[in-house]
Amino acid sequence: MADLKQIEIARLAGVSQATVSRVLNNDPQVNEEMRQRVLAVVESLGYVPDARAQSLRAQRTRLLGLVVHRSPSALAYDPFFSALIASIIDQAGKHNYHLCVDAARTARSQRAIYEELLRTRRVDGLILVESETRDQRIARLSQEGFPFVLIGRYQPEDAIYSVDNDNIGASRMAVEYLISKGHTRIAYLGGPAGLTVTRDRLQGYREALEQHGIPYDPCLALFTESSIAGGMDAMRDLLSLDQPPTALLAMDDLIAVGAMREAQRRGIRIPQQMAIVGFNDTPLCSLVEPALTSVAIDIPALARVATEHLIHLIEGRTVSPIRTIVPAKLVARESV
Amino acid sequence: MADLKQIEIARLAGVSQATVSRVLNNDPQVNEEMRQRVLAVVESLGYVPDARAQSLRAQRTRLLGLVVHRSPSALAYDPFFSALIASIIDQAGKHNYHLCVDAARTARSQRAIYEELLRTRRVDGLILVESETRDQRIARLSQEGFPFVLIGRYQPEDAIYSVDNDNIGASRMAVEYLISKGHTRIAYLGGPAGLTVTRDRLQGYREALEQHGIPYDPCLALFTESSIAGGMDAMRDLLSLDQPPTALLAMDDLIAVGAMREAQRRGIRIPQQMAIVGFNDTPLCSLVEPALTSVAIDIPALARVATEHLIHLIEGRTVSPIRTIVPAKLVARESV
DNA sequence: TTGTAGGCGTTATCAG
DNA sequence: CTGATAACGCCTACAA
C-alpha cells in the first residue's frame, strides 16, 4: 500500500509502465480496453502519482510562494495579510496549485529566503507584496527571469506583472470625503516610508488637499509601522502639535484603530473632535466604538488577478507584462 | 546563470560531479584543496542544489502541510488560526522546513486534499487541528503510517503524537472565576459540537459547576460556529430563555465578541448584567468595549511542540507517541 | 496503438 | 580519497 508506483500498476494490469503513464495523462490514443484495465487497477489500489517525481521530471512543483515581511505575531494580527493569504490559497487551489508561505522577520533573512526559494526552484513562482520604490527583489527576479507578480506598484509600470488597488484615487476620495465634512486640518498616517503604498496614498492625500486649496503641512504626514501600537504613537505625536488636526486618514485599519484608542484615552471624542478614516475595511472596523469608516480594498480580486497572472506566466502563456488596477470604495461608518 | 547544475560546477572546478555533491554535503573525507576549489566555483556562480531533484532522491520535500477547515473569509478573520499559521511557519523555518497551507471549505474537498497531500507525498508530514471525536483523518493517517501530529485530542491518547491546551482545566478555572464573582447561572457557548475542544471545554465547565453544587442546565450549553455571527445568534437564543444567564464562557474570542455585541445591542450592560469570558486571548480582547477577559492559549508553544514532534517523526527519530499539555492562564480584563 | 529507453538533478554505493 | 554508475518515479520521444 505504501510504495505504490506506476510499474506496480503496470504489472498488475499486464501493460507497460509507459501505458500507465499515458492513461493517467489522458493520452487520447490509448486503446479503450487497456485504459479501462489500467484505470481499474489504479482505482482499486488508490494509486496517485508521486508529486516529487513529477516535479523533477516536469521541472515544476505546482507550488506558489509568498513571503511575508512580518514577524509571526505581527502577521497573526494583521487581518489584511490573513485575508490575502486565504484568498490566494483559494485561488491557487482552483488551478491545482498549492501555496508555500514563508515569513521573513529580518532584512537579512528576507534576502536569504528569496534566494533559496528562487534558486532551489522549490516554488514555480512568487507573489510579492509591499513593494518599495527601488525594490531589490524585483530587480533580482526580473534579471533571473523568474516568474513573479507584484501586488503593489513598481516603475516602470509596464516592466512587470502587477496588480494594485487604485491607491491614489482611493486616498483622494477619502480625503475629499473628510473635506466635504468641513475638515481642513487633516493628517495622514502612513506605514513605513519606503513602501510604495505609503507614498501612493500620500500622493492621493496631497492631490485632494491641493484641489481644494488647502496647503500641505508636512507636520501632518507621519509614518509609522502597521500596527495598533504604531497608530497610538502617531496619535501622540499629532496631539503634541501646536495645531493638532481635526481629522485623519490612516493607511490601514490597525493604525487607525490605534490612533483612535489613543485619542479616546485622552478624552477626545470621535468623530466630534477627531474624524478618522482607515484603510482595508477589515472586520475590526465594526468591532470598535465608534465603528470605523474605512476604504474597502477588494482583496479577493487582488488575489485572483495575481494568482491567475502568475500561473499564466509559469505556464508560459507569455503575454506582455500587464498592470491591473482594482477599484476601491469608501465604506462610511461612524468615525467621521 | 539559469540552469546551473552540479555537473557545470564540476567541469569548472575540474573535478567529478560526485565530488561536487560530496563537498556540498560536507562529506568529511574530501581533500581540503578540492573542497576549496569546488566551493570557490559554487560561491562565484551562486549555485544552489535543485530542491526538486533532492526531493525525489531523498524521498522527502522538506515541506510540512497544514489544512485549515475554514472558508477563505472565515480563515482571514480568525486570529487564532492566523497566529497558529504564523507560529508554525516560524518554527518550521528554524528547522529548514517550509509550510504548505491549504484550505478545505467543503467536507468533500477536505477528504480530497488530505488524500492528495498524503498520496502524492507532496508534504513530508501533516499538522492536524480541530480534531473530532472519531476523526476520519487520524484513522486514515495512522493506518497509512504517514507522519502527523495533532493539535488537539484523540483517544486513545497514547496512540498518536498530540499537543493540546489544558482545555478541561482552563475551562474549569474560567468558570470558577465566574462563580467566585457570585454567578450561578452561567452559560457555555461552544463551537461545532463534534470538535473535541468544544467537548473538553464543556467538560471543564461542568466539573466546575458540579464542584460548587450548581446543577448543570443543558439549556445553557449552546453550540455554534466560530465567528462573530455565531456568537450573536447564540446570545439571541440565550436571551430568549425564561431564565437567561448572568454570565457566560465562550469557546473563543470571536464567539464572545459576537455575544457581547448582541447583548449590548439589546441594552444589556457588560459586565454588570452579563459577565463574559472568551478564549484565546487574541488582540480583539483589548479592542472591544469593555475589554474582554479571556483564557490565554500559548499558541507559539503549541506550534513549537507540534512542529518539533512532527519533524522528529519525519526524520525517523522514532520515540513512542507523546501527548504534551500546554498550560493556559486567565487574563482578567473588564468584561467580568 | 504499445513498448523500450533516456533523462530530469541528486545522492550514495561501488570500485579503483 | 575520487570517479563512474545506479537509482529515485515519472514522462515522452522514438521504435516497433
Task: Summarize the helices and strands and which ones pair or pack.
The structure is a homodimer of 336-residue chains.
Chain A: H1 6-13, H2 17-24, H3 32-45, H4 51-58, E1 63-68, H5 72-76, H6 79-94, E2 98-103, H7 107-119, E3 125-129, H8 136-144, E4 148-151, E5 162-165, H9 167-180, E6 186-190, H10 196-211, E7 221-223, H11 228-239, E8 247-250, H12 253-265, E9 275-279, H13 284-287, E10 293-296, H14 299-314, E11 323-326, E12 329-331
Parallel strand pairs in A: 1-2, 1-3, 3-4, 4-5, 5-11, 6-7, 6-8, 8-9, 9-10
Antiparallel strand pairs in A: 10-12
Helix pairs in contact in A: 1-2, 1-3, 2-3, 6-14, 9-10, 11-12
The structure holds a DNA duplex (16 and 16 nucleotides).
Describe this structure in words.
Two copies of one chain form a homodimer. Chain A is α/β, with parallel strands linked by helices and 336 residues long. The first copy, chain A, is elongated. The longest helix of chain A has 16 residues, at 79-94. The mean pLDDT of chain A is 93. Chain A has helices at residues 6-13, 17-24, 32-45, 51-58, 72-76, 79-94, 107-119, 136-144, 167-180, 196-211, 228-239, 253-265, 284-287, 299-314, and strands at residues 63-68, 98-103, 125-129, 148-151, 162-165, 186-190, 221-223, 247-250, 275-279, 293-296, 323-326, 329-331. Helices cover 46% and strands 16% of the residues of chain A. In chain A, helix 11 (228-239) packs across helix 12. Chain A starts with 5 loop residues before the first helix and ends in a 5-residue tail after the last strand. Strand 2 of chain A pairs antiparallel with strand 2 (98-103) of chain B.
